[in-house]
């Protein structure tokens, strides 16, 4: 299309701009006013008809990966319709735009790439990141989800292919918690990849070199953070899927410098503590009485353990006592004070005791009430391990949080079969309902989508300047409070996905209140005396029907 004439530019901006395009939903008056008559078929679709057409397209796709591609292209064509479709059945569509399907999509990213999304910042641009950041057309950017692709889900180093994670995460910000999509920006920091199969792939879209590390890596990240603060001074940075060795270090480096958080460390912790609080309600016991064993000792495990300790301290334990109820297992076995080569963030959970080489030995020695998997080691919760947990506890807490599904430590069916239906279960990936001895259980998914999008809306509504750790404890407690006693009696420890927007609103308001109490809010409307934060959040909430 020749875009040199004003009419051509106007037409292009209407039909081919996904934020303005309405497809066949343009009314006849709109078609006349916008001078797009004849550029669309005669029919005028109402919203239900548009959704029927989308669902028919999806039904014709043979795999979830093909459905992911279709939804990605729909977002590129008609943003409002994309979000209306997601919200029409979040339980069905969230697994297609994010976990578990996004894992396969990232593995195949260079082969399925259509229209690139977000901003790609590579080492070739070092020294110019502020300049390149200004190429992004939206000046209202308030959220950046950024990855360097080194630890994508439980799949490892996917380099530039990891861009699917920021894209998917921000789609959930808008679909679940109403953060306007034009305020979000997915970013990939391309510092290379050590994945040899990707470097040998002619369709790999990233920088073809091994990863940089050390001072060069840190200088690049520093430049990025400084560029964001210069170009978008009220923007929050969410670090996503960085390797554990960098995840904690970057969070510690920047958390007092700018508005930022790490979803894998803090979002995962929030959803895990919410699940544990629900489990404790079901058991009629406080969290302070639980003994937690983590299979995995990385950033996610220690992030959860730290937030558990915060909650236990609020229930009366000392810091040492609270940490002493959390134990880690790494690749060499139970982490103890004699374990060598530990990172600083692991040391608070390296307790006195004899080494122990296996998970089953650790379960027998420590007799935990809760077993949490953050190992990315699929099927590592064996029948022997689960049955041992069931012999120790009337109702063992089993949380295999690794994702995608192929990396889950056990399935819901296995956990319930091996405990005769007694387990309190939460998983990182979705599982279908489970039937044991004639009783059907619909079990909860402990996905970060319950925490990070709501955190995003709270930050958006208040223009928070920082994201202190206690906000994730507020989010966890509030999320846990949204589960009814009847649901807990059925073994459900998270709100149903169908109610996730309602629970997200409650969590966002609670976190926003705490942001204001801590003096971190920069939004005048949020801090004025008598401000109704629920009304403010609802007014800011993105509605694709009226956008």
Strand order of the largest sheet: 8-7-6-9-10-11-14
- Rg on CA atoms, Å: 24 Å
The portion of residues forming beta strands comes to 5-15%
CATH H-level homologous superfamily name of the largest domain: NAD(P)-binding Rossmann-like Domain
* Tally of contiguous helical segments: 25
The number of domains is 3
Keywords for this entry:
five-stranded parallel beta sheet; globular; seven-stranded mixed beta sheet; 547 residues; Rossmann fold; alpha/beta; 3 domains; 25 helices
Walk me through this protein's architecture.
- With 547 residues, this protein is an alpha/beta fold.
- The protein has 3 domains: 1-45, no CATH class; 101-258, 3-Layer(aba) Sandwich (Rossmann fold); 266-449, Rossmann fold, CATH 3.40.50.720.
- The chain is 46% helix and 10% strand.
- The strands form 3 sheets. It has a 7-stranded mixed β-sheet, with helices on both faces. Strands 1-3-2-4-5 form a 5-stranded parallel β-sheet, sandwiched between helices. A two-stranded antiparallel sheet has the order 12-13.
- α10 (164-177) packs across α20 (452-462).
- The protein starts with 5 loop residues before the first helix and ends in a 7-residue tail after the last helix.
- The model has no long low-confidence stretch (mean pLDDT 95).
């Amino acid at each position: 299309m020749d875009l040199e004439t004003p009419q051509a530019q106007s037409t292009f901006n209407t039909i081919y701009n996904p934020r303005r395009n309405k497809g066949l939903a343009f009314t006849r008056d709109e078609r006349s006013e916008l001078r797009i008559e004849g550029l669309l078929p005669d029919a005028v679709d109402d919203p239900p008809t548009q959704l029927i057409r989308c669902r028919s397209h999806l039904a014709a796709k043979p795999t979830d990966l093909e459905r992911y591609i279709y939804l990605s292209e729909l977002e590129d064509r008609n943003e409002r319709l994309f979000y209306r479709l997601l919200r029409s059945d979040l339980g069905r569509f969230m697994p297609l735009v994010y976990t578990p399907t996004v894992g396969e999509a990232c593995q195949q990213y260079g082969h399925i790439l259509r229209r690139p999304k977000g901003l790609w910042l590579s080492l070739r641009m070092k020294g110019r990141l502020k300049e390149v950041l200004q190429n992004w057309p939206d000046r209202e950017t308030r959220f950046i989800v950024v990855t360097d692709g080194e630890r994508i889900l439980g799949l490892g180093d996917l380099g530039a292919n990891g861009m699917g994670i920021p894209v998917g995460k921000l789609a959930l910000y808008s679909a679940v918690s109403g953060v306007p999509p034009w305020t979000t920006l997915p970013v990939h920091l391309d510092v290379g990849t050590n994945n040899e199969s990707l470097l040998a792939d002619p369709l790999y879209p990233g920088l073809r070199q091994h990863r940089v590390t050390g001072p060069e890596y840190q200088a690049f990240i520093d430049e990025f953070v400084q560029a964001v603060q210069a170009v978008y001074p009220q923007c929050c940075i969410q670090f996503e899927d960085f390797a554990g060795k960098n995840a904690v270090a970057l969070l510690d480096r920047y958390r007092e410098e700018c508005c930022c958080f790490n979803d894998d460390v803090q979002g995962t912790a929030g959803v895990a503590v919410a699940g544990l609080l629900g489990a404790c309600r079901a058991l009629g016991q406080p969290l302070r009485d639980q003994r937690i064993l983590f299979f995995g000792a990385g950033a996610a495990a220690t992030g959860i353990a730290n937030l558990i300790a915060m909650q236990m301290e609020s229930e009366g334990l000392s810091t040492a006592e609270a940490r002493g109820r959390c134990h880690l297992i790494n690749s060499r076995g139970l982490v103890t004070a004699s374990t060598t080569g530990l990172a600083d963030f692991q040391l608070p959970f390296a307790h006195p005791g004899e080494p122990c080489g296996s998970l089953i030995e650790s379960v027998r020695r420590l007799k935990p009430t809760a077993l949490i998997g953050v190992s990315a080691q699929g099927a590592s919760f064996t029948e022997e391990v689960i049955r041992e947990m069931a012999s120790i506890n009337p109702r063992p807490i089993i949380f295999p949080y690794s994702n995608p599904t192929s990396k889950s430590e056990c399935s819901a069916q296995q956990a319930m079969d091996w405990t005769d239906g007694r387990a309190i279960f939460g998983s990182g990936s979705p599982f279908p309902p489970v039937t044991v001895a004639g009783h059907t259980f619909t079990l909860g998914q402990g996905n970060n989508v319950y925490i990070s999008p709501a955190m995003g809306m709270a930050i958006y509504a208040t223009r928070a300047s920082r994201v202190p750790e206690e906000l994730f404890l507020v989010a966890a407690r509030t999320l846990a409070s949204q589960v009814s006693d009847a649901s807990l009696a059925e073994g459900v420890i998270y709100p149903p996905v169908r109610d996730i927007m309602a629970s997200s609103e409650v969590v966002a308001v609670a976190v926003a209140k705490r942001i204001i109490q801590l003096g971190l809010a920069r939004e005048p409307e949020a801090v004025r005396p008598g401000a109704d934060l629920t009304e403010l959040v609802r007014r800011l909430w993105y509605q694709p029907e009226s956008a």
